[in-house]
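Q: My labmate handed me this sequence with no annotations at all. I'd like to see what the chain might look like in three dimensions before we decide whether it's worth expressing. Could you predict it?
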Amino acid sequence: MAHKTAARTGKPVSALTKLFVLDTNVLLHDPTSVYRFEEHDVFVPIMTLEELDHNKKGLSEVARNARQVTRTLDEIVSSQHDGIEDGIALSGPSQKLASGRLFLQTEAIAKELPIDLPTANADNQILAVVIHLQRRHPERAVILVSKDINMRIKARALGLEAQDYFNDKVLEDTDLLYTGVRELPANFWDKHGQGMESWKRDNRTLYRVTGPLCSKLLVNEFIYQEAEQPLYAIVREIAGKTAQFETLTDYSHAKNSVWGITARNREQNFALNLLMDPDVDFVTLLGQAGTGKTLLTLAAALTQVLDKKLYSEIIMTRVTVPVGEDIGFLPGTEEEKMGPWMGALEDNLEVLNKTDDSAGEWGRAATHDLIRNRIKIKSLNFMRGRTFLNKFLIIDEAQNLTPKQMKTLITRAGPGTKVVCMGNIAQIDTPYLTEGSSGLTYVVDRFKGWEHSGHVTLQRGERSRLADYAGEVL
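A: Here is what I predict for the chain of 474 residues:
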């Protein structure tokens, strides 16, 4: 491999390793981002450190990340006993996660910017650093990494290379996200039917088949085949090229209704099978508006809390990110403050309360009071350090959570607690979060194949013909 010498240091630098200049928003978005560039070098401008200093005060997620970044940088700098002008090796502080070097700006850099760009602007000062490094190291690729689209456009307009920060993305293409559902090919039984075993257990039929497709399946993945005799089943075990399937409870039939609710389509039936299974501790439901995520989850929760007594109460929480202008401070207790955000809960309880036609108006009012006593609405802000025992925890609008916030919430679950996350990754309101980096996408991808978790992407809207048509054309 050809080596060239860097302008400042006497150490050989590979022409293939790149020099990444980090914008402040990358560090605030992922506090460990300095360790995510493998064998490449990382450069942190002095303006980035200055902006970190401005953001470190307060209790927000950004302030916490700023403090964590500062601690990480302090740990790296403390590991270097000589001068830091030649860069600091990252292999030690990162536990060999990164093998490049960290460079901090140690000298004043002349502003080489077009006259129209104000030099007092922090973004423009970082761009000046990138121009300076590009001229100093003509043999290397110097790349600006920023989450700010305008910053990247400005950099490209100045002839600089700029990239988004990709490491936080679970998937480049969300079309590849695990759906939890797989249609079996028409020739499945021709290839897998030889030597098939079947037996009954608890009114369900189990099959054990062997064939090439079995190794591609995941535990708790739903499989179906629409034919004269349709098959709807869930994968229970995988061992090499052998798989064990179990048929499902048909929740589309009125005799199996859950709190008066029946499944209206195939995916809703799959979702109810997960929600009603006590062996499944973690369920994720993805789907567009009107696919029935909240209604199915609440119906399953009420049945298991009030009828089956599997859980002591329902806890519901969601991210309070406004769609329009923020309405400011709200009076009252924690539950009253969360009230305006919980319109979806009230709407669905209204539907569930009408399922019992024989109760009459007084009976329904009494049922409504009983239900509301068993549902607690909690704010995300006070979740850290808590442990929920024997609860049914519902996380609504989970697409607005970061992976770190999602981890904080799911790790609250104590013994006997079931966690359900639901959301629509096409409706993200949190700044800097995308479909690929959302906490919901993250957990769907990380939990797939675990025997105590399941996922279903709901496809068909069941709200109204108006909502379905609006979802398609708008």
